[in-house]
Fold this protein.
Amino acid sequence: MACACRLVADSRFRNLPRGVWALGFVSLFMDISSEMVHSLLPVFFVSVIGLSYTSVGVIEGVAQAIALITKMFSGALSDYMRRRKLLAVIGYGLAAITKPVFALATTAGWVIAARFTDRLGKGIRGAPRDALIADITPEEIRGASYGLRQSLDSVGAFVGPLIAIALMALLANDIRGVFWFALIPAAIAVLILIVGVREPPRDDGDAEISSPLQVSDIKQLGASYWVAVSIGAVLMLSGFSEAFLVLRAQDVGLTLALIPVVFIVMNAIYALSAYPAGVLSDRFGRSSLIVAGFFVIIIADIVLAWATGVWVMLLGVVLWGLYLGLTQGVLSALVADSAPKRMRGTAFGMFNLVSGIAMLLASVIAGWLWDRYGAPAPFVASAVFATLALFGWMIRSALTNNSRAT
């Protein structure tokens, strides 16, 4: 722990580019806005709208898949245009203008449409933003840069539910009133992006992409890149939408007003661990952090499956947040490491396309298992799958090391 703290305090933290800090604060304020809404939506769907857990799984899976699949096209388009900031502004702006819809909606259809549109905006901005970080960051501090952005993003993700709790108390549990307040930080995020982020000049020495999503271009992504894609897909299959953490909390007795605590705890741990994990991956390699993430999610699943009280359930949430911190920023750095400079947007887009499909499958299966076998079932299934994937990864690493030795 002391070593990690010294790493956090080293010169890398001070030398991170201004644009990385700006993009981090854009993520922070947008996540404050989004999580003010999303921390209350699962309970709103089940308790107010009356949807089944399977329906929640489908809605959340489709919403996340929309965001992740859209990144495929926006990432490739940012390579073709050789401009990433414009697409990021459109994506963040689209997410911001959907916030009032949540407050005004009177039927499930409107809420679902707003949820999907919000995730569409997330998809448009995601891959260009991630590629832009690689464009403006020196290679030796790439893990730290992605870790910082992920940490600030996660700070927003726990501050948002915290604000939601305070507003729920002040507004006598008026969920729609909370949704109205979510518009303010969303607008701040768009303003910071427009004013505070400068795109680096074009490198005219780079080969241009003739058109987006050319098969011949995608074939140029090497084996190391596809390993990173495979790891991301496996981790998505091992997990599922965090909506099920909220529903598990309600299942073990957490009151409605305190439901956002789940997101606060998870994202606080996520924020505290993502930057140190990125710095450690710069110094010691990405693989060790990925393996540690597998171990942590297995333990988290076991705790969440057998939790019978709020405190044990919150321990599982803490471990889930640590798993995210150990893996998500490191995976982004791994993609950036393995992708050609001129195809970073496409690389992040393809990575998120595969991850989106995995997330959709995982969330739908989790909802079906919950409805059919009860609350522990999706977590047990996740632990089993993660264990098998971990053994597969360790066998692959051993074979790779043996082949290098010979």
Summary: Residues 344-373 form the longest helix (30 residues). The chain has one domain: 17-198+217-405. The domain at 17-198+217-405 is CATH 1.20.1250.20 (Growth Hormone; Chain: A;). The two ends are 37 Å apart (CA to CA).
